[in-house]
Amino acid sequence: MWGLQYDENLSDNPFFQEILANHGDIVRRASQEQWIICIPRAGAFEASEINSETIFDHILVPSATPHEYFCTLTKKQVWIRNKEIVTVEDRPNGTIRVLFEETFYIEDLKYLVFCLERPLFMDRIICDAHRPNVPETLHDCIDFLWGKNLGHVLGKVQRLCASFVEQNRGFATENLQSQRDLVGSLYSQCLQVILKNQKLSGECENLKLAVETYMQSCLDKTLIKAVNTVTCFKDASFNKIVRNSSDLQLKDLNIANKFCDIITNAKIELSKINNYVTILDKVNCLKLTFNHLYNTNVCLTSDDILQIFVFLIIKLNINNWTSNLVYLTQFQFSTLNVSNESNFLVTTLEAALEFVKSSQFAQIKSSQQPMNRIFQTIATNDSAQLRDLLKYKRTAGSDTNLCHPLCDCDSCRSADSSHDVAMTNEKGQSLLTFAALFGRCEMVELLMGMGAEVETRDYFGKAPLHYAAMKGHQDVLLILVNRKAEVNAKDHDGNTPLHLACSNGHESCVKALFYTCRNLDVDCVNKRGETPLHLAVKWNYVGILRILLENHAIAAIANKKNQLPVNLAQNYYTEKLLRQYNKNLEPTQEIGGLYPTSDTKTVACKEHGIRPKGLELIKKIDLLLKAIENNDLPLTCFYLGFSTDSSSDYNFQSKCHPLCNCEKCEDRDEGPRKVVDRINVNSCNIDGFTPLHFAAKFGRTELLRILLDCRALPNLKTYKTLQSPLHLACIHQRLPAVKELAKCANCDVDSQDYKGNTPLYYACVKNDARIVEALLNNGANCDVRNHQGHSVIKEVQEKRLYGISALLKDEASEDFL
């Protein structure tokens, strides 16, 4: 009987193996004279039927005219129409479909091989009655079980799955092999319940497939979420590649425009893959996608299929491709589901994913090349030529040197010097925007030095800073921010640079924005109502998510689909991290051991420290502050719960650079290890003084660094005087403490106390030029007025502090007398 196997690897096809083994002359002639070798799919022939005559029947030799007509080596006429081979003989089954074509190479020559759905010139006809009745979807499986009077058993499978979920609450945190073993054990239990009916032994394979599929549907999101957790970081890495390649078009992947229509239909079908929770349904989704590609009049090769799948992966809004692949390959226990066709579909998906991760894909560049010569110099990174083009100015009457006034030849374009630093291309992008897009630091500095507008917008509403953040050019981003680029500017989609950096996975740019920008809006929403937190969660960027939460991103903002960030979480890590923060952005429990806790109940205030409840804890905090005053570091570490050894070994040297992520600098970021019993670093005494207040007041710089590294809040104020740690450091002239506090990204250098005075006011009154300079370097505003309406400048003038006056002169907007 003719088997209906799907041929995946032609090298394993017995018919093709026979040609290679005993008919090498045919292969050589095919490569020299462009013959086509036709190979019926595996199972089309019995071994005894493969002979020289049948092989000669499947070698197509091109006719002289017309080009679509061919003649076999047995002198039989055929012609090729789209993806079908039509025999000239009038037969009811005279049209044979070409499943795919593949190119093989022999030395420096190549030949083409067609894989056919059935043999040419044979009387065998495929009958639907011969097709095995294999379930293809979850609904087919349920219908099959009900048809075998097993509907009552479905409830037992549901109870087994519910018990499995209840008993394995930590299932998502298990490694892949443990997850597979646990699910395999559950599958065996479900089979034992079903197979007690001995009458069904004849349809055992279909039964196994139906049980496996129904079990997966009962586990629902539990199993999917567990696999997503295992592959979370691989998915994040893959998503970053895809997100940064989203501008690639069909021609960049060498896909012909004739495939546009079938790609659209295939894209719609493949976008549904995450709507299914069973392997059978996901494989069927892939199958339907392939049907959209094949059931057309357009002929596709295997190379075309791979390129189209790569294009679909890039353009689809799916964030867990790696997880889907692992699920399809590691959780199939039914042998019937592991068919040749299923393997071919999954292998094609795997090949496309591997290609996207390859260095070959990384070298693919967008074919949208700039038309203007000066933009080409930016694309090719030719700084010298760019400088020459911008310096050259056309003189009056220079048109006489052109061939004619509208000439566009190379020599006339060279003579045309109408290059302006503000000129734009066909997308409305200025030279500065284009340089930021390509990450050309030297050119960005050159253009800004020549007066380029840093806030210029293109037709999409994007400024240079948007493109620097979107493409991950941290160095360009820092230059633009330093030139006062608007960090909260929105494009036409409502996205800020922070949105784009989070969406494309550029953690270094996210860090740079928080490090350099004090007014960064971390909770800004775009036109879809999404905050940067939504995007970080959606694309599995756990590192970026942690940075956003540590910088007080609000996790309680819903998008226009009424989805909170936690609703978008698809794995254990992101969901846990989000649930550890409450609406006020204070952690509800420790995250990675960074946040100290206390067994005693405390009352928190947004502006002040955590006020303890209970006499014992109040006394402990007083003893802690006394230890800080006495500079007793071991005792201070004891009360705060820090290990004495770790605090003495802690290296306070500066990083390689502020945003460095090397192992050495990451070790410094972790700070000292902590032990279990401790006082919260943001606890305060009855006057509102926190440990950070005392460390700043008494100049305990080493301890101050430890507290800041352990998330001590630098803007908490005392109860009566409303003074922050920076106020106290300035009042008591603690320069090292001022520098440490002022360089914190979330430190408010213009914080006002109960009189309305800022830290800069007290530094000026104390006539401490070094502290004044440190504050001004960190953005202190000398125009802020206190409650009496006096500014720092007025006080300096009244006290005739000429040294301080000279420092303030360049920063102040008021006129000096």
From TrEMBL:
<dbReference type="InterPro" id="IPR036770">
    <property type="entry name" value="Ankyrin_rpt-contain_sf"/>
</dbReference>
<feature type="repeat" description="ANK">
    <location>
        <begin position="460"/>
        <end position="492"/>
    </location>
</feature>
<dbReference type="InterPro" id="IPR002110">
    <property type="entry name" value="Ankyrin_rpt"/>
</dbReference>
<dbReference type="InterPro" id="IPR037191">
    <property type="entry name" value="VPS9_dom_sf"/>
</dbReference>
<feature type="repeat" description="ANK">
    <location>
        <begin position="493"/>
        <end position="514"/>
    </location>
</feature>
<dbReference type="GO" id="GO:0005886">
    <property type="term" value="C:plasma membrane"/>
</dbReference>
<dbReference type="GO" id="GO:0097422">
    <property type="term" value="C:tubular endosome"/>
</dbReference>
<dbReference type="Pfam" id="PF00023">
    <property type="entry name" value="Ank"/>
</dbReference>
<dbReference type="InterPro" id="IPR051248">
    <property type="entry name" value="UPF0507/Ank_repeat_27"/>
</dbReference>
<dbReference type="GO" id="GO:0005769">
    <property type="term" value="C:early endosome"/>
</dbReference>
<dbReference type="GO" id="GO:0043005">
    <property type="term" value="C:neuron projection"/>
</dbReference>
<keyword id="KW-0040">ANK repeat</keyword>
<dbReference type="GO" id="GO:0048812">
    <property type="term" value="P:neuron projection morphogenesis"/>
</dbReference>
<dbReference type="InterPro" id="IPR003123">
    <property type="entry name" value="VPS9"/>
</dbReference>
<protein>
    <submittedName>
        <fullName>Ankyrin repeat domain containing protein</fullName>
    </submittedName>
</protein>
<feature type="repeat" description="ANK">
    <location>
        <begin position="687"/>
        <end position="719"/>
    </location>
</feature>
<dbReference type="GO" id="GO:0030133">
    <property type="term" value="C:transport vesicle"/>
</dbReference>
<feature type="repeat" description="ANK">
    <location>
        <begin position="755"/>
        <end position="787"/>
    </location>
</feature>
<dbReference type="GO" id="GO:0005770">
    <property type="term" value="C:late endosome"/>
</dbReference>
<feature type="domain" description="VPS9">
    <location>
        <begin position="232"/>
        <end position="365"/>
    </location>
</feature>
<feature type="repeat" description="ANK">
    <location>
        <begin position="528"/>
        <end position="560"/>
    </location>
</feature>
<dbReference type="Pfam" id="PF12796">
    <property type="entry name" value="Ank_2"/>
</dbReference>
<dbReference type="Pfam" id="PF02204">
    <property type="entry name" value="VPS9"/>
</dbReference>
<dbReference type="GO" id="GO:0005085">
    <property type="term" value="F:guanyl-nucleotide exchange factor activity"/>
</dbReference>
<dbReference type="GO" id="GO:0000149">
    <property type="term" value="F:SNARE binding"/>
</dbReference>
<feature type="repeat" description="ANK">
    <location>
        <begin position="427"/>
        <end position="459"/>
    </location>
</feature>
<dbReference type="GO" id="GO:0045022">
    <property type="term" value="P:early endosome to late endosome transport"/>
</dbReference>
